[in-house]
Predict the 3D structure of the following.
Amino acid sequence: AQERYSATRNAPATTLCGTTIGLQMNAGLMADLPSLESSGAEGVGLFRTELQFLIRNQMPRRSELSALYKRVLDASGDKRVVFRTLDIGSDKVLTYMKPNDEPNPALGWRAIRVGLDKPGVMRMQLQALLRAAAGRNLSVMFPFVAQYSEYIAAKAEMNKAMDRERKLGHPLPAKLEIGAMLETPSLAFAPQAFFEDAEFLSIGGNDLKQFFFAADRENERVRRRYDTLSISFLSFLQGIVTRCEVAGTPLSFCGEDAGRPVEAACFAAIGLRTLSMRPASIGPVKHMLRRVDLNVLRKIIEECHDSGEQSVRAPVMEYLKSVAR
Ligand code: PEP
Ligand code: MG
């Protein structure tokens, strides 16, 4: 099936109406990096750093992490890599750093909450990233930020880490970019200052959808009950897109839905311009995007708003069938 897409591997994901969507890949292992070339991804939109913490029964050393991050940057060449700081808790529990029993782990002590409460681990990781990216560009993204103050506190940790490195005489990255994942509904309604302050944002659709519909992403029974293409969720995403446009803040979408061609086409229609997905999805998503007219999709979505349709999926599918080859 991948052969089918090889002809357009180096072609842009440009729609019929002339809009180009940036397609990036999600990664988490050194073994994922060869896909950067083979998939035609423009960069790594999400590098999940938790695996190196999960596969051990003790905290990895800073030097090990730094060496790995350096290899990731080496393998990526000129392509941008967005490193997401440690996202543990909920479904990803470290044996050596367990929260006390939590009745609702998905709503519990996880991700940036752990990072800010136990800053030692976050500082170690930030230092490893700074050292790995000495003289190069570094993009760091904080997971599960639920309010502006958490972003401010995390950014302050990064600034402290930079000061420390400077004092130690270590070379710093040539350019540093700090962003956040938008994966709790609260952050979509943060003060505009947050949207202006963040250098980039990425929608973590897996978590965002779970919290939007109050439906556990791990629970098959409820997970499929709510459509990503429902008018309610699309309107919510549209609001985020608009806030980022007003602030001039680059926005991407890196949850699993970005890798589904029908969903990806609708995301493009509501204004998302960068999607990050597993490498195998890039071909099919590009194939779809190159066949659609976003103006038609926007009109279909608008009509659903007016007619009281719950989801845009059926009419969108009808249109996509007419353009699919
Ligand atoms: C997400 O929540 O959509 C996301 C990309 O992060 P993860 O799946 O690792 O929680
Ligand atoms: Mg998430």
